[in-house]
């Protein structure tokens, strides 16, 4: 029998637990590409823009233009994650957020079969793509703006919270600061765990990221089919 959570303020895909699991997985993805796939961080694109600009500035045109590939993959992921939710919503079976986690899990599983002898760029672009979709899809945890694939905003928010606590004695800033600190801790723990197992499991170490992904997928599927089936048309906050 299907139940409803129409009176709930936030969806399961907006829960803090969801974001903790996403950050945990993202930390693993970042550590994986850095340790085993070219010493790059594919969860965001600032570094690619900087390296491209520096390389072009040195006159190495062909090498510089290469960075348009991961940048384009990130752009494509954002574009698709904006376009595809509407047709998926009309099917009325699962939310786009849930489908995305299934796609991510499938991509990470496939990456585990790609030998380290294969050019790193293939895996880098794949992670660029799914990280972009995740970043654009999961935007707020229970009303608090979030980035799920990198740490810069979380670190800034912890700093802001500390300033408000000290200067204004703002007690509400404590809980917000702790949320962002928790996200940083989750990301860091994921990166530590994958780094520890990287030399042992090699290319298959990315499968460790499937643990939080599959836990989250099971939770979201259950919510879509039972708890929140009547809310499939409702947009998460921030969209």
Automatic annotation (TrEMBL):
This is DUF1275 domain-containing protein. InterPro entries: DUF1275. Keywords: Membrane, Transmembrane, Transmembrane helix. PANTHER family: SLR0142 PROTEIN (PTHR37314), UPF0700 TRANSMEMBRANE PROTEIN YOAK (PTHR37314:SF4). It comes from the Bacteria. The chain crosses the membrane at residues 64-81, 93-114, 177-200.
């Amino acid at each position: 029998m299907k139940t409803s959570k129409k009176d709930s303020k936030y969806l399961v895909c907006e829960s803090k637990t969801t974001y903790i699991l996403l950050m945990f997985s993202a930390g693993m993805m970042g550590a994986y590409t850095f340790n085993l796939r070219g010493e790059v961080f594919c969860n965001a694109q600032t570094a690619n823009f900087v390296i491209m600009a520096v390389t072009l500035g040195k006159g190495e045109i062909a090498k510089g233009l290469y960075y348009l590939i991961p940048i384009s993959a990130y752009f494509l992921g954002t574009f698709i994650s904006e376009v595809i939710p509407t047709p998926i919503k009309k099917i009325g079976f699962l939310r786009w957020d849930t489908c995305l986690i299934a796609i991510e899990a499938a991509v990470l599983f496939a990456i585990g079969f790609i030998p380290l002898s294969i050019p790193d760029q293939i895996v880098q672009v794949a992670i660029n793509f799914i990280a972009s979709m995740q970043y654009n899809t999961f935007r707020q945890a229970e009303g608090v703006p979030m980035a799920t694939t990198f740490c810069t905003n979380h670190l800034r928010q912890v700093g802001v919270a500390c300033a408000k606590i000290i200067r204004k004695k703002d007690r509400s800033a404590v809980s917000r600061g702790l949320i962002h600190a928790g996200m940083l801790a989750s990301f860091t723990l994921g990166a530590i765990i994958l780094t520890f197992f990287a030399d042992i499991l090699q290319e298959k170490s990315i499968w460790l990221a499937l643990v939080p992904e599959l836990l989250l997928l099971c939770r979201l599927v259950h919510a879509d089919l039972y708890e929140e089936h009547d809310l499939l048309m409702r947009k998460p906050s921030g969209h």
